[in-house]
Every structure is written in structure tokens, then in C-alpha cells.
Amino acid sequence: MTTYEALAARMRVLLPKLRKRKLTVATAESCTGGLLSAVLTEHGGSSDVYLGGAAVYSNEAKTIFAGVPPQLIHSHGAVSQVVAAALARGVRARLGSAIGLGITGIAGPGGATPGKPVGLVYVAIDSDTVSIVRKCQWAFDRSGTRLASVGVALELLEQAVA
To answer: What is the number of domains present in the chain?
Structure first.
């Protein structure tokens, strides 16, 4: 399991790469509740690349802040590959960023439903050149699941910038 400090160190390396390429990032986070935003803004100068984001815990917030169609949520569930992709795409469009990141999942300890256990997380990235959704199944506690999910988001961002 990773630590917040390790995630912040990765962002320290990623920030100048984003800045050099003049890439901007926006986020829509459900189960991480703003942790990705915190990591993205850990270092001075992050406002050059991070436009903003939303903690979209409720289905209504997913629609309001990231433009996720309610019928998509009802058809597939809030914790799904298609909703994660819609979060990344929608927040990118709403904020006019080059890159959108979306995270949705079940951090636990409760919230599991049939077919969607605690620790199930989808992390998505959307840009002009890449659109990926990664499915993760973590066996960590709530904090570990959130940290690991942010780690995947940074990995996708690092790949997009490489």
C-alpha cells in the first residue's frame, strides 16, 4: 500500500512535465472524496496545471458537476466502468481541461451490493489522445483503498504525459 507522501512525491515529478507540455487537469472523484485533488495541489505551482474538480459522492452530484446522464447511472450503477469514463469526460468538458480524471468505487467498510464488493474501484482518464478506464479490486481498508485508487489515477496521468 502507498502513502500520501509517496503520492505527493510522484506529483512533484509529474508537475513540471504537465507544465512543460501546457496540459491542464480536472477531476471528478467519488470514493476518494477529494484526495486526488489534494495530491494534485500538494506543491506550489499546481495552479498552472490543475483547473479544479469536484467530490461527486451522490448520483446527483455526478450529474450536476460532471454531466453524467442519470440514465447512465441507473442503467449501470454509480460504480461502473461507464460512469467512471463519463466522470472523466464530463469534468474535462465542464472545466475545459486537456485531461479529465474520474474515480468511482466502494471504499467501505459498507456499501457493497451483489456483484460490487467493497474495494471495487474504477479509475478513468480522458484526453484527446487517451481514454482508459482501469478496474481495480482492492483488499485494503477504506484509507488504503482511497490511497491506492489515487495512485492508479497518477499512473494513468503519468502514462498520458510520457
So the answer is: 1
Distance in angstroms (rounded) separating the CA atoms of residues 108 and 10: 26
**Alpha helices, H only, 50-141:** 59-66, 70-76, 81-95
Does residue 31 belong to any structural domain of this protein? yes
> With the C-alpha atoms ordered 64, 67, 72, 78, is the resulting torsion angle positive or negative?
negative
Task: Please give the backbone phi and psi of residue 91, each rounded to the nearest 5 degrees, phi first.
Answer: -70, -35
* CA–CA distance, 158 with 137 (Å, rounded to integer): 21
CATH number at 43 reads 3.90.950.20
Q: Is the peptide bond before 109 cis (omega within 30 degrees of 0)?
A: yes
Q: Which domain holds residue 69?
A: 4-151
pTM: 0.97
In a domain, 71, yes or no: yes
Per-residue pLDDT tens over the stretch 117-156 = 999 999 999 999 999 999 999 999 999 999 999 999 999 9
